[in-house]
Design a protein that fits this description.
A two-stranded antiparallel sheet has the order 1-2. The protein has one domain. A hairpin with a 4-residue loop joins strand 1 and strand 2. It has 5 helices and 2 strands; from the N terminus they run ββααααα. By secondary structure, it is mainly alpha-helical. The protein starts with 9 loop residues before the first strand and ends in a 10-residue tail after the last helix.
Length: 140
């Protein structure tokens, strides 16, 4: 059986065998979230690893900004629906079932067993789809 080729808007989470379908998000919101990271001294938004090299309160701000970026890209930029019932981990983290986008982001972050590389791929694809000329600013 031939391996199915993934489309440019998909990320396969190997441990759960789920393929996430990515879509563009609102470019203005994404630019605001990126600017939060870009304004922090020592953070290079083209190299996420620099977040860990920043010290003190700058590091806390960088981590918080990167978490918002991740949550926005996965919560609004992925079309897959999570299971109806929240996992225990999502409940522990304070996710509410009446917030579908935040619930989706939590499902991707906590329940799918995704690697850091896979999570980064989702964010990268969503950003790429958002900033392509044909989809720039498209909201879904």
């Amino acid at each position: 059986m031939a391996k199915k080729e993934l489309l440019e808007n998909q990320v396969r989470i190997a441990s759960s065998k789920i393929v996430l379908d990515c879509r563009p998000v609102a470019s203005g919101v994404l630019q605001t979230l990126l600017s939060e990271l870009a304004t922090l001294e020592g953070v290079d938004i083209t190299d996420p690893g620099t977040i860990l090299l920043v010290g003190g309160s700058q590091q806390a701000q960088a981590i918080q900004a990167s978490e918002k970026l991740f949550t926005y890209c996965t919560g609004w930029g992925v079309s897959n629906e999570p299971p109806q019932k929240l996992s225990e981990v999502a409940q522990l983290m304070g996710v509410r079932p009446d917030q579908p986008n935040l619930k989706r982001a939590a499902w991707i972050r906590y329940d799918l067993g995704a690697t850091q590389q896979e999570l980064g791929d989702v964010v990268g694809i969503v950003m790429g789809l958002t900033f392509t000329p044909s989809d720039n600013g498209k909201e879904e």
